[in-house]
From TrEMBL:
GO biological process, one term: protein maturation
Name of this chain's protein: Carbamoyltransferase HypF
Residues forming the catalytic site: 20, 38
One Pfam assignment: Sua5_yciO_yrdC
Gene: hypF
Pathway field: Protein modification; [NiFe] hydrogenase maturation
Organism: Gluconacetobacter tumulicola
């Protein structure tokens, strides 16, 4: 007999989060009859019963299980002729978009289980349930079922099958479910005979405790691990990997170990305990026996908590924090394949802790920081990707877009049906193998999420590899190409994630970063813009100076110091400062050669870059290396120096003037004051703090004036310089004090890792308008 019923379709992040058993429990409690199943990346419910009970079910759907994120609930009348109860029925194929959650850190219940001697999964390195474990790193297709994951080759034993089939069990339809009898197994390859299972963990721990380096197969790839408490082990890892000074991430076993070595704030503790388990920069304890080589020149250490049972068990055996650095040759993508790990890491690792569960896709660890009181993404990877971002009102009707991002911190973005799928971090396209890895990941994402773009958005710089790749892909598919100016994309990304509508008012955009091609053909990086999604107009900037040596000046901070001091003092004044020992970074440098380049305009392009200004100040204060070994090294050291000031600093003087029709921030007075302070013996930390305060104050004032003239009330802050917490927080405080609404990136990185989101928003807005 057919009964009046309704069909309810729930869209959003409803796969791999226990949504069907959640619906089953609620429906049975309400006395409803019907079925629930997966339909592609949606959940479909057919239900009959009293209207009040059905309304109560729908109300419960919006909260869902803890890791779900419901975006829409659609209801329509239907008929039901099934059984008397409420059942979970097999999944059916359906359309897909971006409905899979990211990998989840091990939940407390599973951690307790692996520690309990009486538990069936005691000491088992692949324990998980519906609330935790691998997701995106193992999925190979939709709907998300075991047969479409890299667990497909592991047949369930009778005990696991019973848990998997029981809707009341926390492992009901947990696709990676496994146990020692039927699941993946550990093995150790290294000194002595090979070993498996718990013996493999013991062998790896023994090698680590003796100062060795172990390649550990994680969720999204291999790590290179060593004792974080050993100067010798850290130095050995750096030497073998060729990673001279870039900070190394450290993994702590649990919150107790974290507190023994670090001084996290309450917000940082909460962020570290999040199921995404990101790397978070935190202060360390002065007496903590950590290697000084972990983060040279910095006052923060990137730490994360063990996020898999394998990591937790290994750290329990070692009893000390472990470095967990990306398992790759310097400049190459992280290794995911076992054979490649044995081959490519042979010159670095002394042993390999491996397992037989394949990795479906490479995922670096995510990095987040608490800035201006809120967790913000610095690098999007494991634990965050591929959770979608909902585009603002007005974008749902736009055709699908593929945005290619930038060359540094490469990431792409796909849009469809009002959702933006920002990819995980790929690396730098200049590095070997990264372009191929990006194209492979793009094909993977497009196949997995069934996205067919109508337009390809690229950075306007014609020499960017991402630009060339995008144009090639567009030509192959006969698609339109939309070029987007670099700093417009930065601001648009911030606007989009804060929900500013497609046809909304413009904002004042502060785009501060290292470098990007500007609309006048010069290098920009310290810009005040008036932006909507379709266009950006520059109204202010940091005063431009030469970059002697071009791109080399972005790697050798002393070159920018020379350019800035000469622009302020003229060469004789700079030479006098060098002779007095106020600018030791310039001593012995070929200054006449660089000055000739600047005068002739040969390989010395003008730039208005905030990033290069930070480099120059770091060089003046003698905290910048002669040649940086990683992007942002000098600026990060300068930020750390500012945090070390013993008292609040006055703001360094920056001038505001008008030149070439633009409002311009002039740093000349700041440089003269900094040299005077150096001569008077003022602590470098206070000079750095004063510099940060002064620069923030100058940009805040310029933004305030712009907002007043343009009749605007919102300022969007973006660009890689906004990863500098001292600068971003000072800017936010001053702008709010001026009565302005302040937007800072949250879920998409402020730097180039979030650029593709802005490109996608700009291209979509232009397509909506038919530009």
């Amino acid at each position: 007999m057919e009964l009046a019923a309704e069909r309810i379709v729930v869209s959003g992040l409803v796969q791999a989060v226990g949504f069907r058993p959640f619906v089953w429990r609620v429906a049975r409690r309400l006395g409803l009859r019907g079925t629930v199943c997966n339909l592609g990346d949606r959940v479909e419910i057919l239900v009959t019963g009293p209207e009040a009970a059905r309304d109560a079910l729908v109300a419960a759907l919006w909260s869902g299980p803890p890791r779900a994120r419901v975006l829409a609930v659609a209801r329509q009348p239907d008929l039901y002729d099934g059984g008397p109860g409420f059942e979970i029925v097999p999944s059916v194929a359906g359309g897909v978009s971006a409905g899979i959650v990211a990998d989840l850190a091990t939940c407390p219940a599973c951690l307790e289980e692996i520690r309990s001697p009486a538990a069936r999964r005691h000491g088992y390195a692949f324990t998980n349930c519906v609330d935790c474990g691998p997701r995106f790193s193992i999925v190979s297709g939709f709907p998300y079922d075991r047969a479409r994951t890299t667990m497909a080759g592991f047949a369930l034993c009778a005990s696991c099958r019973a848990e998997y089939d029981d809707p009341t069990d926390r492992r009901f339809h947990a696709q990676p479910i496994a146990c020692p009898a039927c699941g993946p197994r550990l093995r150790f390859v290294g000194p002595g005979a090979g070993s498996e299972g718990e013996a493999a963990l013991t062998a790896a721990a023994s090698l680590l405790l003796s100062g060795g380096i172990v390649a550990v197969k994680g969720i999204g790839g291999y790590h290179l691990a060593c004792l974080a408490t050993s100067d010798a082990a850290v130095a050995l890892l750096r030497a073998r990997k060729g990673r001279l000074a870039k900070p190394l991430a450290v993994m702590m076993r649990d919150a107790a170990m974290l507190e023994a070595f670090c001084r996290p704030s309450a917000a940082e503790r909460q962020l570290l305990a999040d199921p995404a388990a990101p790397v978070v920069p935190v202060a360390t304890r002065a007496d903590a026996p950590l290697s000084a080589g972990l983060a040279p020149g910095l006052d923060r250490l990137g730490v994360m908590l063990a996020y898999t049972p394998l990591h937790a068990l290994l750290l329990a055996r070692v009893g000390a924090p472990l470095v967990m650095s990306s398992g790759n040759l310097s400049g190459c993508p992280q290794v995911t394949d076992d054979a490649a790990a044995l081959r490519d890491l042979a010159g670095i690792a002394d042993g390999w802790l491996m397992h037989d569960r394949p990795i479906a896709r490479r995922l670096d660890d995510s990095v987040m920081a608490v800035v201006d009181g809120q967790p913000r993404v610095l690098r999007r990877g494991r634990g965050l990707a591929p959770e979608p971002l909902t585009l603002p009102p007005g974008f749902a009707a736009a055709p699908p877009v593929l945005a290619m991002g930038a060359d540094l911190k490469a990431a792409f973005c796909l849009t469809r049906n009002g959702q933006a799928l920002l990819s995980h971090h790929m690396g730098n396209l200049d590095d070997a193998g990264v372009a191929d890895a990006l194209l492979a990941a793009l094909a993977d994402y497009r196949a997995l999420f069934a996205q067919a773009p109508a337009v390809v958005a690229v950075d306007a710089h014609p020499d960017y590899r991402s630009h060339a790749l995008g144009r090639r892909l567009a030509a192959e598919a006969g698609l339109r190409v939309e070029t987007v100016w670099h700093h417009h994309a930065h601001v648009a990304a911030c606007m989009a994630e804060h929900g500013l509508p497609a046809d909304g008012r413009a904002v004042v955009g502060l785009a501060l970063d290292g470098a990007g091609l500007g609309q006048d053909g010069t290098v920009w990086g310290g810009e005040v813009l008036v932006c909507d999604y379709r266009a950006a107009r520059r109204v202010g900037r940091l005063a431009p100076v030469a970059m002697p040596g071009g791109d080399v000046a972005a790697r050798e901070p002393w070159r920018m110091l020379l350019a800035h001091l000469d622009a302020t003092l003229e060469p004789d004044g700079t030479d006098a400062a060098v002779a007095r020992g106020l600018a030791p970074a310039l001593a012995g440098r070929p200054l006449p050669v660089l000055r000739a380049m600047i005068r002739a305009g040969v390989n010395a392009p003008a730039c208005s870059s905030a990033g290069r200004l930070f480099d120059a100040m770091a060089a003046l204060l003698d905290v910048a290396p002669a040649r940086m070994s990683y992007e942002g090294e000098a600026a990060m050291r300068l930020e750390a120096l500012a945090r070390g000031a013993d008292q609040a600093a006055d703001s360094a003087p920056f001038g505001l003037r008008t030149r070439d029709g633009l409002a311009e921030i002039d740093p000349a007075a700041m440089w003269r004051a900094a040299l005077r302070d150096r001569g008077d013996g003022v602590a470098p930390a206070r000079i750095s703090a004063s510099f940060h305060a002064g620069l923030a104050g100058a940009f805040a004032e310029l933004a305030r004036r712009t907002a007043q003239v343009e009749g605007l009330d919102t300022v969007a802050l973006s660009g890689g310089a906004m990863h500098n917490a001292v600068l971003a927080e000072t800017l936010a405080v001053r702008l709010r004090a001026a009565g302005l609404r302040v937007l800072l990136p949250v879920r998409a990185p402020a730097g180039d890792g979030g650029l593709a989101l802005g490109q996608a928003a700009v291209a979509a807005a232009r397509m909506l308008e038919g530009v």
